[in-house]
Amino acid sequence: MRTTFQLGDVTIHRLVESEPAAGLRDILAFFPNLTPELLAESRHWLCPDALDEKDRIKLCMQSFVVQTPHHTVLVDSCLGNDKDRPAHPNWHRKRDTAFMDALAAVGLTVDDIDVVTCTHLHIDHVGWNTRLENGRWVPTFPRARYLFSARELAFWTERNAGTEIPWIVDSVLPIVAAGRADLVRSDHALDDHLRLLPTPGHTIDHFAVELGRGRMAGVITGDFIHSPLQARYPEIRMMLDHDADQAVATRRGMLERLCDTDTLCCFAHFPSPSCGQVRRWGEGFRCEPAA
Ligand SMILES: [Zn+2]
After folding, report:
1. Could you check whether the bond before residue 228 is cis, i.e. omega within 30 degrees of 0?
2. How far apart are CA 27 and CA 30, in angstroms?
3. How many A from CA of 222 to the centre of ligand 1?
4. Strand 72-75 vs strand 56-58: parallel, antiparallel, or unpaired?
């Protein structure tokens, strides 16, 4: 499985935490406006990589590490260990070494990460922000600053004040309490090789991550798209979309912009190799896996 990509002087590493065991969901529930007819028509090209024989979508759970000449950045932090997730039996208090092994496999330790950023504050993108130490949630990356969208954080903090949201409590607020969060706009430029790219809809202030000096050489999508099926049919909604119409417009707009360019697109939840170039396919798009 290919895990490292080079874009000029930017290196991208995939850190796969689980594929696909932790990410199997009934596809008709996951995509509420997907019809059984369209699914039947699409099954032959979705199976076996993106769909299993029980019509469950197969999602890769992964983070990306980006090394620019100035920073080593973790983009999204997956599920994490020891988290109370009774609604998700596969994730509940899990204790595996996959994520840390993947970090070690690319020659890095937690001390090497300068910046952690979360494309949005959903459960599967914040987990390794923290780890359990003597009964307390502490930042996993001892030297890192954590870049969050101010608007996204405000939204989830307010929602959490109403009814506690476990992953906000154990994986986001401890970072804020430790004084390690930097709140930015979703178009923030970290350095001359890495910029945030507003891609709202799936959540209120979702961003993607744009890589490359002076051009979009690469993009890490976060969850403005979840499956190759949503590339072929960008109008397919995801069950958790904050504003589904906006999410559709963002997805189609981004795919149109990326189509027929050499931009390396790193799709957060696409099956391995998860990365490639966007090409036109009918009224929609497909990802041509990176060679
Ligand atoms: Zn996700």
Report:
1. no
2. 5
3. 7
4. unpaired
E strands along 134-236, which residues? 136-139, 145-149, 181-184, 189-191, 194-198, 207-211, 218-220
Dist CA 245 CA 222 (whole Å): 18
pLDDT digits (tens, 9 = 90+) for 72-86: 999 999 999 999 999
Residue 124 CA to ligand 1 centre (angstroms):
5
CA of 64 to the centre of ligand 1 (A): 13
d(CA 97, CA 104): 10
Contact, 171 vs 80, CB < 8 A?
Answer: yes
Q: What is the per-residue pLDDT across 39-83, written as a single tens digit (0 to 9) for each?
A: 999 999 999 999 999 999 999 999 999 999 999 999 999 999 999
Print the domain residue range for 67.
4-289
Strands 284-289 and 275-281: antiparallel
Q: Could you give the number of structural domains in the chain? A: 1
Q: What is the CATH number of the domain that holds 153?
A: 3.60.15.10
**b/e string for 145-155 if b means 16 or more Cβ within 10 A?**
bbbbbebbbeb
Tokens at residue 60, please? 């890769």
